[in-house]
């Protein structure tokens, strides 16, 4: 009697198992057919919910198209959301690219790299090429920016200038190297010299090496080098002898600085090494006249080669009393 009951129970279990297995396969088939046959798709990407169409996801031969046509297995929750185990931060950008064919990309390099990683995961080739092109543009812009070295020692400066094959413009800017007070316009003129340095960097980028020296002895002094030697120097500081105290004055000879920058371009690519280049530099044309209050000194360096030193009103005696009083300049 018990044997018959055991056989009957085993038969019942087998019949129940046979019924339950087809039911399970029918559920999976229903899931795939539902995704294939539906017009709209609900996507849960790392908790970020997106509602789109099968047509949008199928525009490119990508992982998303494979999900839509059943070629890739996906997880669908009880509410019908397709669950993708990815960060949803940039998935909206991926969808917008599929919708429009183009999309603005983030300018930050790190975020752009994140978008590229998502595009590679979803195998959206158009977006991958778009990201790579944007990265190449960023690289080109970065490489075109002139890097201004900061000199930390005189030895480092000499080595850099001696080995550089380009003309060199150096600005010594050490405001703290002063034992007197500054005149009222000195701070503005010092700032103008620094701004001019930045403008020249942009103007002659790639043709001239620009060096900013903040540890030198001069408060504000421009030096111009060609083929490893100093060609000219423009000193922008002077001492003003007032009635009761001395003051340091900073000038802004913009035209003269720009002219000397143009002069050293003849040393670009070694063009100033010949006699013609030296003659062009030493014989100053009509546009090289000194401005008011400027003086020029020439010192022999290496035979006939000379360094032009232009000083702006050095050692000035100035009476700062009321208007109409006599002003005396002492050279």
From TrEMBL:
User: One GO CC annotation, please?
Assistant: Cul3-RING ubiquitin ligase complex
Q: Fetch the PANTHER family from UniProt.
A: BTB/POZ DOMAIN-CONTAINING ADAPTER FOR CUL3-MEDIATED RHOA DEGRADATION PROTEIN FAMILY MEMBER (PTHR11145), BTB_POZ DOMAIN-CONTAINING ADAPTER FOR CUL3-MEDIATED RHOA DEGRADATION PROTEIN 1 (PTHR11145:SF26)
Give a GO molecular function annotation for the protein. ubiquitin-protein transferase activity
Family that this chain belongs to: Belongs to the BACURD family.
Region (Disordered), start-end ranges: 1-26
Q: Which domain of life is it from?
A: Eukaryota
- Give the matching InterPro entries: BACURD1-3 (IPR045068), BTB/POZ_dom (IPR000210), SKP1/BTB/POZ_sf (IPR011333), T1-type_BTB (IPR003131)
Identify the Pfam families for this entry. BTB_2 (PF02214)
Q: Which GO terms describe its biological process?
A: negative regulation of Rho protein signal transduction; proteasome-mediated ubiquitin-dependent protein catabolic process; protein homooligomerization; protein ubiquitination
Domain BTB as annotated: residue spans: 39-139
Name of the molecule in the record: BTB/POZ domain-containing adapter for CUL3-mediated RhoA degradation protein 1-like protein
- Species of origin: Lates japonicus (Japanese lates)
